[in-house]
Structure prediction request, 399 residues.
Amino acid sequence: MAEIRVENLHKTFGDYVAVRDSNFTVADGEFFVMLGPSGCGKTTTLRMIAGLELPTSGSIRLGGEDVPFNRAAARDIAFVFQLFALYPHMNVRRNIGFPLKCQNMPAAEIRTRVEETARFLRIDHLLDQPVSRLAGGDRQRVALGRAIVRRPMAFLMDEPLGTLDTEFRDLMVRELRELHLRIRATTVYVTHDQLEAMAMADKIAVMSRGVIEQFGPPQEIYDRPATMFVADFIGSPPMNFLDFRGSLEPGQAAVQVNGATVAVPAAREARREADLVLGARPEHVRFDDASKLRGTVFGTEYLGTTQIVTVSTAHGQVKARLPADVRAVAGETVGLSFRGERLSLFDKASGRAIRTALTDGAHPPSRSGGGGPPQAVEGASLGGAPGVGSNPAAGGAHG
Prediction:
């Protein structure tokens, strides 16, 4: 396997910028996920790494070799597509072995490798079956087998679970992660589904409009979003945003929101009076009769052990993830308070996070991801749609 290093990668189609100066490193044996909504540039980036698309400028290094203008066949990578791309007139054995046949490998060696790969993927009992009779999950295993059998330097996967139903997709998420832990293959995986990304990735790059908004481990991206886009895109429900106007001084550990004093992580930078945003994950919101921040219960979503309570406030709707036994009646007025040490602060104009004690454990934002620190790029587009999954740290699909 090999390290993949991308430096200042840029791609334009006429006047349209699809990928803007991307920088990141996928370490040897790492499972790296590119996450974002449709049109954000993640698949274009993957295609440039694969050699299916030529970059406008920038560097791509596979195992230390600069390859941006090498043909795909010369890059020693395996690509797994969303639509499987299996050969319908061949059985499972011949589908898996076809890449080796194209390399003129001896038949005995092909047979050995195919059977070894099939046992590894637990589909050895299907080797002589036509692929047309297979279920979706088994077809995806055959597609993975065809990639694995080559023993390439790296695997590239473009939304490989996108066509599976929910049951098969959840199963394949677990199997892909287990497969990675067994073979430790350098993998670049593209998806718009936060659940897949959070469940499988060692590192995630969140993209929007061709820009990498943040790069880092899943937990860091969820707990310490670098921009409002990341905070809104990751999580189900997404982070709550409460606008307020104020200033900050280093060490300041409280802000005024609609007349209520809200404890926040100590500021690490000064800000002149401006429009700011308080960010709170739903699990960090609670009911508090003594709080001056008031709202009216709009509705509840029962989730078994927990419930999502939507409260209408002067700042818009706030969602709270509360124990199921907490009483919440539509139309009732309630007070809201927050876990101050877990809150985020953002500059509303730029959408970027303000440095506080919450970010002390994180690397500072940088234009160059370089495989280490999370990055928030100046000029990044803000906005995004809330996730809709069942995991608070990973929402559902974005179109």
Q: What stands out?
A: The CA atoms of residues 297 and 332 lie 5 Å apart. Residues 364-399 have pLDDT under 50 and may be disordered.
